């Protein structure tokens, strides 16, 4: 089978496309013939070695996959079932989706919703599933469309693109924060009412600012997240799901004790199966299917290494889908 393989020998770190024996697949109770995977920011960090994402070597990256069950000893799945996988440390500590086959724990898999093709599911992927978890969190904390503007940061990325589409379809007024103003028309086509430059949020700010946001979905962290909390309206909620700017949080308690702001963390890697199924069912209902193709760029497995460097440099847009069979 073809696979993208990461190796580390002493101080040498490498990623290459290889043909390997399927017998080398790790232990698992379900073998999936992979149709599509994706290139997420975490995958690109792993492939380029820019961050110590990979925990054992050799490693096949790819935190997402969709495909067809070929063999199963798991009670929930039989040969021929269409399935998807997001997270669970796959591509970090267990071989992932950037290969033609994957051997996995059946508990990590969920059925592919009937509303989606395998390709569409990967056009959504972990990024879109995370965006849906964020939207659900805002809803559960009482952020409704009538409360005011909702901010989405990292808007031209995968999480941001899907979040804008979801929020707009649900009736929210969405403001998109991006460092790429050339993408403003793309973001508005997904449903953003307006865009702001990310630099307005990315520098050290005041402990409290003018109240503006009823809610926010932040994939950036650091000063950006601190400034969002400082400018969120009384009783508003911020869903934090990323750290593109940094993992620090240089804030104060003032937004939380003076304005009752809620900061809710969104984990998608180890989420219980029932939460995953709920999120994917909501995506089938609430995502504007007309936006899927606009958000997606498809590449071949052989293109993944070069595209990973482009993604780290901020030169990709939306979702990168990998056809592992070409």
What is shown here, in short?
The chain is of the alpha/beta class and 326 residues long. The protein has ten helices and 15 strands.
Tell me what the structure shows.
The chain is α/β, with parallel strands linked by helices and 326 residues long. The protein has two domains: 2-112 and 292-323, Alpha-Beta Complex (Quinone Oxidoreductase, Chain A, domain 1); 126-265, Rossmann fold, CATH 3.40.50. It is 29% helix and 27% strand. It contains ten helices and 15 strands. It has helices spanning 41-48, 118-140, 158-169, 184-190, 199-202, 222-230, 254-258, 273-286, 292-295, 304-312, and strands spanning 2-9, 12-19, 30-38, 64-72, 82-86, 101-104, 110-111, 149-152, 173-178, 194-197, 213-218, 232-240, 262-265, 296-300, 319-323. Strands 3, 4, 5, 6, 7, 14 and 15 form a seven-stranded mixed sheet that branches. It is globular, with a radius of gyration of 20 Å. It starts with a strand and ends with a strand. The model has no long low-confidence stretch (mean pLDDT 96).
What is the fold's blueprint, element by element?
Layout: E1 2-9, E2 12-19, E3 30-38, H1 41-48, E4 64-72, E5 82-86, E6 101-104, E7 110-111, H2 118-140, E8 149-152, H3 158-169, E9 173-178, H4 184-190, E10 194-197, H5 199-202, E11 213-218, H6 222-230, E12 232-240, H7 254-258, E13 262-265, H8 273-286, H9 292-295, E14 296-300, H10 304-312, E15 319-323
Parallel strand pairs: 8-9, 8-11, 9-10, 11-12, 12-13, 14-15
Antiparallel strand pairs: 1-2, 3-4, 3-6, 3-15, 4-5, 5-7
Keyword list:
Quinone Oxidoreductase, Chain A, domain 1; six-stranded parallel β-sheet; single chain; seven-stranded mixed β-sheet; Rossmann fold; 27% strand; alpha/beta
């Amino acid at each position: 089978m073809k696979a993208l393989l990461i190796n580390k020998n002493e101080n040498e770190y490498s990623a290459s496309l290889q043909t390997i024996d399927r017998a080398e697949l790790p232990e698992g109770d379900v073998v999936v013939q992979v149709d599509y995977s994706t290139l997420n920011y975490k995958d690109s960090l792993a492939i380029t070695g820019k961050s110590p994402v990979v925990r054992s070597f050799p490693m096949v990256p790819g935190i997402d996959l969709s495909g067809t069950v070929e063999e199963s000893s798991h009670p929930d799945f039989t040969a021929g079932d269409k399935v998807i996988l997001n997270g669970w440390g796959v591509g970090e500590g267990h071989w992932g989706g950037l290969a033609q086959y994957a051997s996995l724990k059946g508990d990590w898999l969920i059925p592919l919703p009937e509303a989606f093709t395998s390709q569409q599911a990967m056009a959504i992927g972990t990024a879109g599933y995370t965006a849906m978890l964020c939207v659900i969190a805002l809803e559960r904390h009482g952020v409704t469309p009538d409360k005011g503007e909702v901010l989405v940061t990292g808007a031209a990325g995968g999480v941001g693109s899907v979040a804008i589409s979801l929020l707009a379809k649900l009736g929210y007024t969405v403001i998109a924060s991006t460092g790429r103003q050339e993408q403003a028309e793309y973001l508005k086509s997904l449903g953003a009412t307006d865009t702001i430059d990310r630099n307005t949020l990315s520098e050290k700010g005041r402990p409290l600012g003018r109240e503006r946001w009823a809610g926010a979905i932040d994939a950036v962290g650091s000063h950006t997240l601190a400034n969002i909390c400082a400018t969120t309206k009384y009783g508003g909620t911020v869903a934090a799901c990323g750290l593109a700017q940094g993992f620090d949080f240089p804030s104060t308690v003032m937004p939380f004790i003076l304005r009752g702001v809620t900061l809710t963390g969104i984990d998608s890697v180890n989420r219980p199966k029932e939460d995953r199924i709920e999120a994917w069912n909501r995506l089938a209902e609430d995502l504007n299917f007309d936006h899927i193709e606009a958000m997606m760029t498809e590449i071949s497995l052989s293109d993944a290494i070069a595209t990973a460097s482009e993604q780290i440099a901020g030169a990709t847009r939306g979702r990168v889908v990998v056809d592992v069979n070409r």
